[in-house]
Structure formats: structure tokens, C-alpha cells
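Q: Got a minute? One more chain.
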Amino acid sequence: MKKIGITGATGQLGRLVVEKLKQRVDADNLIALVRSPEKATDLGIAATAFDYNKPETLIEGLQGIDHLLLISGNEVGQRKVQHQNVIDAARQAGVRWIVYTSLLRADSSSLSLAPEHLETEELLKASGIPYTILRNGWYTENYTASIPGALGAGAFVGSAGDGKISSASRADYAEAAAIVLSSEDQVGKVYELAGDEAYTLKDLAAEISRQTGKDIPYNNLSESEYADVLASLGLPEPLAQAIASWDVGVSKGDLFDDKKVLSHLIGRPTTPLAESVKEALV
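A: Always. Here it is, folded:
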């Protein structure tokens, strides 16, 4: 049986992918590739030290792995180098297939996240290793994580205007990854993955209001105003500016998609916005 390695397996998406994979393949054939193996003991699978920033450790970590899920690193600005390290090591270790988590329409998106993802896709194509690309849209949790703050402030703020967001839950994307990794005939495919339901931040604020019984309006701010608000909450200035710019990308349609490729792949509708809001309020 083929060994499947999962990078970033202790992260928010990685943990969910491991759980979904354990429902489809023998846990003995799964390996968590993580910076801190001691944090992976609860996953119920083998864990190996694996740090994108330490190329000398990567080849050893990939020994015996046939198929690799490369979950994109979370250090924006460092991803191309980190992913290059992993892809080079995978080639030397004899990995036979890489599945990569990219960004929805990475080749045309105006989001500042897109170039690094597109560069990684090009690295994969040039590597000679068979690959599959999962271009993930937004996680609904990216917005529902802000619900406690919105309730405290009495408003949900952003700079997305009337842009529509076709997000899905992390669990939806994790299930897609697990299905692809445990299926045949996936090599060379590029999946544009997004949620079935498209909503605006005004719609999200209305859903929060409905479920809480409180009047939580959506206040649309300019990009700079929103960045200032985020910075005032303690976010580093570059991150605050990046998040505000991504909202502007929403207003341009960067996170809207109505093809329903994700729900077709996982064989069920993606998680409704109302359900994600309910989970965030628990």
C-alpha cells in the first residue's frame, strides 16, 4: 500500500485532512510531516520532523513516501522558497505524486496571495513529478472567526463592498483533499474549488443578526480605514494591510465562483453559511 505524507498535519486544515484520510485509507499508511512531532501524537498516525525552512531535513523526512499532500506554508512572502525546498527534496526522495493546495484561480486572481501560489504551480510543472492542484477558495472560518469581535463592537466591518464570496468550510476542502489523495486518475488535474453558496459581508452580518437576535450591521470601510481598524486590534501592520487588500479583491470578484466543482468532488453540498455561523457562536 502506498504511503501518503501530509505536510502541516497539525495545522487547522491538516488535522482535518488526516481525519478524513483515516476514513478512507489505513492509518498505518499515513505520515504526518510536521515541525513538532510531539504536537502530532493525538493524530493517531506516524509523525516525522519536517520544516520547510530546513532543506537538509526534508529528504530524510520524505523517505518511503509515495504520495505527498503539500499544504501551502503560512508564511506569506516565504512560500516560493519553502515550497521549492519541499519539491526539490521530493524529487530526490523519489516521491511519485504531489497534491498541492493552491488558491482559487491563482492564474488570474488579483489577491496578493496569488503570485506565490502560481509560482509554486510552475515549480511543480517543472519538477517532473506528477502533480494535482487543488485551488482552494476562501475558508468560511476566515470570516466567522471575526464574529466575536463583531458582536463586541456592534458591527461587522470590512472593505469588500457588495462582492460575493463563494467560501466553504475547512472540512469541505479537507474532504476534497482526502478524496483526491485516495482516488485513481487524478494526476494532472487542476480543481477550482469553492462553496456552493455565494454571500456578501452584508449577508453575513444579517445571518449573525438573525442567529443572535442582535442588530449587527455591516459597515463597509475604505481599504486604508479597514487596515487601520485591524492594526488597532493588534495585527502587525503588513498583515492588516494584506487582509484589507484581500477584501478589496472580494469586491472585484476574486472569491466568487459558481461552478460547484467542490460539491461535485465531495458528493454533497458544501457547508451552508448559516451552519458555519452557528458553529462559530457555540
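A: The mean pLDDT is 97.
Q: Perfect, thanks.
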